[in-house]
Structure formats: C-alpha cells, structure tokens
Amino acid sequence: MTPAQIETFFATLQAANPQPVTELEYTSVFELLAAVLLSAQATDVGVNKATRRLFPVAHTPQQILDLGLEGLESYIKTIGLYRSKAKHLMETCRILVERHGGQVPRTREALEALPGVGRKTANVVLNVAFGEPTMAVDTHIFRVGNRTGLAPGKTPLAVEQQLLRRIPARYLVDAHHWLILHGRYVCQARKPLCHQCAVSACCDFRPKTTG
Ligand code: SF4
After folding, report:
1. Which of 182, 195, 197, 210 best tests ligand 1's pocket when mutated (most atoms within 8 Å of CB)?
2. Which terminus of the chain is more exposed, N or C, with fewer CB under 10 A?
3. Going by CA atoms, what residue is nearest to atom 8 of ligand 1?
4. Which residues are designated catalytic?
5. Domain 29-129, what fold?
C-alpha cells in the first residue's frame, strides 16, 4: 500500500466509525487489564459472559485475591485455559496490591512484569486505558496487516513495528480498534468479504472475493 492508500484506508474506517471502542466490557483500568488477560485465545463475547458475573462481585485486585483461586476459577470456568489464567490473575493481583497500591501501572515495563501480561496485553492497556499510540497485534491485525499490504511482516512484532511506522500519527490511537473490527467483521480469516469492503480500492489483496 502506498502512503496515499494508507491515508484513504484509515480516513474511510474513521468516517464509518469515528469513535471505535473495544468490545470487551469494563468499567475501570483494572477490569480492562483483567478482561484482556482472560481474553487470550478466547472471544470477547465469552470473556464478557464470565466477567458480567465476576466483576459485580470482585472488581479490585484485593477483592479478586479475597475470592481465592478456586473462587476465581468458578467464575471463569467457561473461558479456555481458565486454570492458568486464574493463577496469572491471582498473582497479578497480588503484585498490584503489594507493589502498586492496588493500581494498574502506566509503564510498559511494569505491565509486562505482571504474570500473564505480555507485550500484546500491555499494548492494549496502554492504548485503551491510557490513550497511548500503541499497537496490540492480535490474530486479526496480523492477518489484515499482511493481507492488505498495509504492514507485511512474519511475526506480530514485525507487523506492530510496520504499523507504527506507516500509520499517520492522527490515526494511531484508534487504529488498533479499526483494524480489529475490520478483521473480525469484514476481512475475515477464512473468506474476506471484499465485495462489501469499504476499503477495497486501497487494498493490495488479489483476487478480491466477489460474494
Ligand atoms: S478488500 Fe478484501 S482483503 Fe482487502 S481489506 Fe477488504 S476484505 Fe480485506
């Protein structure tokens, strides 16, 4: 994609959805962190289903700790890999209470030091909660970046770096949401819906699907 095509790509996505938001449900930075931690290899819908029961009962690190491991597991059993996610979340909560006054830290270094929090989760929290222009490359963004020619790369990190380099600064904070939603609903994994795609004219993918 040329710089002019990238500009059109994001201007089009922005016009269709000026204020994109994550589909994960949360009401605080901690709830966002917990939801993202639980969402690895799971759908947002599945995570929301569990957290709608969990968060009314426990929505701070101390309250999660007070549930105990088995108590926490009972709320998130429907989410894949729930045992290891429960362990990570408990340990993360312990560190938040002991080292961060129960608050979610704002730096990448401190976030990535939390169990179960990798680069992608840290990028989501920095972007969604703190408004930083970071790019969390999930399976959708990895696919869209490569398929469209926007940010070709063999690894998520390579795609992330390309996206940060190529996306105009004014689109960077929201680009993560636009790309995820575009990948989830239009540029789908098995068969992209090119015939319904608003950015088809600036996408390198060939041959386009016709329905
Ligand atoms: S034209 Fe097709 S491949 Fe390109 S972004 Fe749209 S859906 Fe994806």
Report:
1. 197
2. C
3. 187
4. 120, 138
5. Endonuclease III; domain 1 (1.10.340)
Tens of pLDDT, residues 23-55: 999 999 999 999 999 998 899 999 999 999 999
List, as one string, the DSSP characters of 107-154. SHHHHHTSTT--HHHHHHIIIIIT--------HHHHHHHHHHSSS--S
User: Is 202 labelled a binding residue?
Assistant: no
Mean pLDDT rounded to a whole number for the chain: 96
Residue 53 CB: number of other CB atoms within 10 A? 12
What integer pLDDT is reported at residue 211 of this predicted model? 78
Q: What is the pLDDT of residue 149?
A: 97
Probe target for ligand 1 pocket from 9, 143, 148, with the most ligand atoms within 8 Å of CB: 148
Which pLDDT does position 98 carry in this prediction?
Answer: 98
When pLDDT is averaged across residues 101-129 and rounded to a whole number, the result is 96
What residue ranges do the domains of the chain occupy? 3-20+134-202, 29-129
| Residue having the nearest C-alpha atom to atom 2 of ligand 1 | 194
Residue 149's Cβ-count burial label (10 Å; 0-12, 13-18, 19+) is middle
Residue 187 counted as an annotated binding residue: yes
Q: Is 93 annotated as a binding residue?
A: no
Q: Which atom of ligand 1 is nearest to the CA of 194?
A: 2
Among all chains, which residue has been given the structure tokens 């105990």?
A: 68
Tens of pLDDT along 47-72? 999 999 999 999 999 999 999 999 99
